[in-house]
Each structure stands twice: as C-alpha cells, then as structure tokens.
Design goal:
- The structure holds 2 protein chains of 2 kinds.
- By secondary structure, chain A is an all-beta fold.
- Chain A contains no helices and 11 strands.
- In chain A, the strands form 2 sheets. In chain A, strands 2, 4, 5, 6, 9, 10 and 11 form a 7-stranded mixed β-sheet that branches.
- By secondary structure, chain B is mainly beta.
- Chain B has strands at residues 5-6, 11-14, 19-24, 29-37, 43-50, 55-58, 61-66, 71-76, 85-93, 99-101, 105-110.
- The chains are: A mainly beta, B mainly beta.
- Chain A binds chain B through residues 4, 33, 35, 37, 42-45, 48, 55-56, 58, 88, 90, 92, 97-107, 109, and chain B through 2, 30-31, 33, 35, 40-45, 48, 88, 90, 92, 96-104.
Chain lengths: 113, 111
C-alpha cells in the first residue's frame, strides 16, 4: 500500500496570508490527524477527523481549521498567518479513530515571512 | 499540555552499543507508544505498549512500562548508524483519546 502523502512538501507564505495543506491517508484508513511540530513546542495535536467528522481538537486558535472528504482525504487551513505558524505540519492516518498506531506522512514545511 | 516527557539529554554512542532513553508522564494512560523521526521528516511507529503490559520486544527494541512510576524506557540493542534519529514517546491519556508527544531524544550512532 502507498503511504500517507502530503502536498505541498514546502511552502513559503507571508504574514496575513492563508494556506491550505493536503493529506491523502493510506487506503482504507478513515482517521486522519494533524500535528504541528516546532523546535520550541515540539509535536502538538491539532485535530482528528474520522468519517468526515472532527472527533477531537487541540488547543489551537480558530485560525486553524480542517475538513475531511468522503474519500478520507483531508485538508487543513490556516488563515491570517503569523510568524509563529512556521512549522512542520504532519498528517497521520489510522484505520481506527483515537490514539492508536499512527502512520505519518513526510510533512509540509511551512515558512511564514 | 504534553504528557510524555523524555529525558532531555542527547545521546551519542558507538555503533554496536546499546541506547536507552526514558519517558515519564503525568496521568493514567491507555497505552504508550514510541516513534522515530529522521531529520525532520515523518514519524515512524516503533512499538505500542498497553497499560496492562510491563515489557514488550520488537526486533532490537525493548520497551518497559512502569505505571506505578508513570515511566517507560526504550532500549535499542546493538545500535547501527541507521538508528541515528530522534525518538519520541507518546501517551494516550484516559478520556483524551489523542496522542500527546514528548519533546524527543536525539540519538547519534557513530559508525
């Protein structure tokens, strides 16, 4: 099976812009979770989607949002970008919802200037 | 707040030696997982140990879990240069249903 794919791999934006990141899970996986990784805060949970429904959400402002489509593909959107949003955004999929074994994609490196 | 917290030290060892890293957490958990990350890329799942298990093996990996001390250790035996990576523990706290990751332990294996 193909692994989790994320597009784009690298992205440069300026403050105030918005960005959309995409994640395609492993075939058959219905759960998609998003994480933000920074040197200062480490890996932080953003949200989880399962069968097109947001099941869980981390402590991030409303500028961070996501959705999941009927084919389990997921997108996350960050509006009004801030410098502190520069990070590696990781997507992970799993056959089951919740905190089970996660299969991670390679990540999208977002730089906000 | 993050549950898993690894010992913050970086580890530098010679190929063939064993590497041990620890993780502590604060609340009751359903399971604890270890992941590896190479050079800021995606994480790779290594092993999952449930709260009712004390020890688990997978190849050259050995994980222990002490729920009374709220701690876990990951042992990599006979390390290889390819084991050079950051290692994260992640916990699934009761009622949370999501993973909380520690800060990670950087391991460098010198050939």
């Amino acid at each position: 099976k193909a692994g989790v794919t994320q597009t784009p791999r690298y992205l440069i934006k300026t403050r105030g812009q918005q960005v959309t990141l995409s994640c395609s899970p492993i075939s058959g996986h219905r759960s998609v979770s998003w994480y933000q990784q920074t040197p200062g805060q480490g890996l932080q949970f953003l949200f989880e989607y399962f069968s097109e429904t947001q099941r869980n959400k981390g402590n991030f402002p409303g500028r961070f949002s996501g959705r999941q489509f009927s084919n389990s593909r997921s997108e996350m959107n960050v509006s009004t970008l801030e410098l502190g949003d520069s990070a590696l955004y990781l997507c992970a999929s799993s056959p089951l919802a919740g905190a089970n074994e996660q299969f991670f994609g390679p990540g999208t490196r977002l730089t906000v200037l | 707040s993050q549950q898993g917290e690894e010992d913050p030290q970086a580890l530098s060892i010679q190929e063939g030696e064993n590497a041990t890293m620890n993780c502590s957490y604060k609340t009751s958990i359903n399971n604890l997982q270890w992941y590896r990350q190479n050079s800021g890329r995606g994480l790779v799942h290594l092993i999952l140990i449930r709260s009712n298990e004390r020890e688990k093996h997978s190849g050259r990996l050995r994980v222990t879990l002490d729920t009374s001390k709220k701690s876990s250790s990951l042992l990599i035996t006979a390390s290889r240069a390819a084991d050079t990576a950051s290692y994260f523990c992640a916990t699934d706290a009761y009622g949370n249903n999501r993973l909380a990751f520690g800060k990670g332990n950087q391991v460098v294996v010198i050939p």
